[in-house]
């Protein structure tokens, strides 16, 4: 973790560590099953599917890690701003300067996204290349202390290297999803093992089971890793809430910002929220939640519920008042 003044939460760190451990177990099981499949049904075509999925998945994970800042800024339509570019930019830079002094960390680049949806995000593989972005809607709706709380939350993600953590966690899910897709199209277009190319009848007969096994393993692995990654993401958000609130010493202001942002989000047309959905995992508050049952929504969400976040911030307020 970066050497900053951001407080750590041992309980949340333990839960995040346990989640990463479970992801590691799933990854080991995933590799063991695929190796067993390849050893039992040795086939160049089938092994090629797995190799391509691993290489492509690794490339995608590396790109999302190395260029996370550029990808997020482009997706949000944001632009980097200096302290003299506008009144909003000057205000944003002033708050970031105060937080960097409080946290004893390098100042990230600052950006503004021209949208009335109130939100913010921070990303970047390290504090040296990090970028912090606020929307014009957020700057319009929050006062300075509320804005400081939100930005302290976002800068906590940078201090705790959350981009690296989530990239590593997502690697298995990316490979699993690619395996399912490649195996499906391989069978759909008759590529399941080289039928009709002079291979033995036994080998040809094995082609379909191998593809189906690969698809099944990929689907199960993806489902488990998806749920674990979502759980890890929710832990990250609670940890960032806590770290940001303790850094500023004003958890009530972060709570107030949460209520305002969530309330304003409810007034924004669904089509606009859907357009912002690709950045949900980055945002201070999710732009869009799929309509489903309450328990399912909680399982699939990238963020804890508003009630959960407010309850945790209330606990911090009581701790600080003692």
**For the residues shown, what is the average pLDDT?**
83
Structural class: mainly alpha
CATH superfamily of the domain at 83-159: Metalloproteases ("zincins"), catalytic domain
CATH class of the domain at 83-159: Alpha Beta
Please give the order of strands in the largest beta sheet.
1-2-4-3
Total E-strand runs: 4
Question: What's the helix-strand series?
Answer: HHHEHEEEHHHHHHHH
Q: Give the count of helical stretches.
A: 12
Biggest sheet features: 4 strands, mixed
Report the principal-axis shape.
globular
How much of the residues is beta strand, in percent? under 5%
Query: Unreliable stretches, pLDDT < 50, 5 or more residues?
Result: 192-202
Oligomer: single chain
Q: What is the topological layout?
A:
Layout: H1 10-40, H2 44-66, H3 68-76, E1 79-80, H4 87-103, E2 109-113, E3 120-123, E4 131-135, H5 136-141, H6 144-159, H7 162-188, H8 201-248, H9 251-265, H10 270-276, H11 294-300, H12 306-321
Parallel strand pairs: 2-4
Antiparallel strand pairs: 1-2, 3-4
Describe this structure in words.
By secondary structure, the protein is mainly α. The protein has a domain at 83-159: Zincin-like, CATH 3.30.2010. It is 69% helix and 5% strand. It has helices at residues 10-40, 44-66, 68-76, 87-103, 136-141, 144-159, 162-188, 201-248, 251-265, 270-276, 294-300, 306-321, and strands spanning 79-80, 109-113, 120-123, 131-135. The protein is globular. 41% of the residues are buried. Residues 192-202 have low confidence and may be disordered.
């Amino acid at each position: 973790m970066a050497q900053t003044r951001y407080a750590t939460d041992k309980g949340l760190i333990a839960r995040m560590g346990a989640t990463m451990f479970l992801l590691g177990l799933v990854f080991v099981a995933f590799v063991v099953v695929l190796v067993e499949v390849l050893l039992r049904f040795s086939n160049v075509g089938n092994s090629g599917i797995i190799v391509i999925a691993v290489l492509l998945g690794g490339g995608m994970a590396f790109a999302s890690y190395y260029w996370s800042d550029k990808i997020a800024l482009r997706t949000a339509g944001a632009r980097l701003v200096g302290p003299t570019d506008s009144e909003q930019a000057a205000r944003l830079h002033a708050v970031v300067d105060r937080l960097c002094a409080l946290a004893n960390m390098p100042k990230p680049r600052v950006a503004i996204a021209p949208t009335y949806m109130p939100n913010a995000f921070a990303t970047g593989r390290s504090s040296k290349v990090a970028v912090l972005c606020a929307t014009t809607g957020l700057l319009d709706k929050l006062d300075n202390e509320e804005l400081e709380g939100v930005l302290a939350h976002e800068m906590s993600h940078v201090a705790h290297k959350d981009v690296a953590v989530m990239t590593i966690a997502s690697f298995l899910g990316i490979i699993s999803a690619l395996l399912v897709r490649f195996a499906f199209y391989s069978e759909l277009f008759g590529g399941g093992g080289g039928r009709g190319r002079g291979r033995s009848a036994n080998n040809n007969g094995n082609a379909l089971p191998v593809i189906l096994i690969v698809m099944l393993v990929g689907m199960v692995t993806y489902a488990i890793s998806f749920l674990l990654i979502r759980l890890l993401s929710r832990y990250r958000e609670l940890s960032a809430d806590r770290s940001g609130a303790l850094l500023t010493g004003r958890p009530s202001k972060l709570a107030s910002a949460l209520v305002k942002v969530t309330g304003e989000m409810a007034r924004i047309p669904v089509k606009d929220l859907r357009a912002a959905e690709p950045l949900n995992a980055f945002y201070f508050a999710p732009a869009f939640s799929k309509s489903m049952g309450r328990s399912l929504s909680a399982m699939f969400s990238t963020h804890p519920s508003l009630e959960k976040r407010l309850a945790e911030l209330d606990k911090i307020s009581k701790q600080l008042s003692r």
